Amino acid sequence: MSRARLRQTGCAAPVVAAVLALTGCSWLPDDPGPPVIENDPLPVAAEWHDTCIVGTWRLVSGRNAVDLGTSQVELTTNGDRVFTATADGRLIIEFPGDGLRWRGANESITVEGTVTGSATGTYEAMLGTFTTEVDNTGSTTTVVINGEPNPPTTGGPADRTTLRFHCSDDELILSSDTTRFVYARQ
Q1: pLDDT tier at 3 (50, 70, 90 boundaries)?
Q2: Number of domains in the chain
Q3: Which end of the chain has fewer CB atoms at under 10 Å, N or C?
Q4: By residue range, what is the domain housing residue 3?
């Protein structure tokens, strides 16, 4: 049967459909798949920080376990430590009055200390991590071990610390495996 005869009798459509089915072709448009949703780029870590930290904070309580080589001593703090965190990532740390005092003892060692003066530095507070780099050259630390005073020492120029943090409107907690400091907003 010729092509012309198939068209006349209406038999061309089933034949064409059979050929298309065998070749995988379709008269339907291509399936575009699921829709693509364009998002704005995520913020870069260096451009974002938790603004809850911004403000002035006064130390309420603190403890810190210190490894002295042959033994470990847990120190508790009292006295004054105030720090201000600015919106542009700067830190100002002050030890007003008699400064920050800490004390601890174990079976063989008693440790006491005082920190006075001030320090400055930078911070980054992001996703529960508080990282600081502080120049402590404006602070002085005096340590007494078992009643024997050591000469006062000036802090170093680049002290880098990373702690976990939890911040609310009126309380800031900085912690690590060996440290816990609680601050109140001023």
Answers
A1: very low
A2: 2
A3: N
A4: 1-28
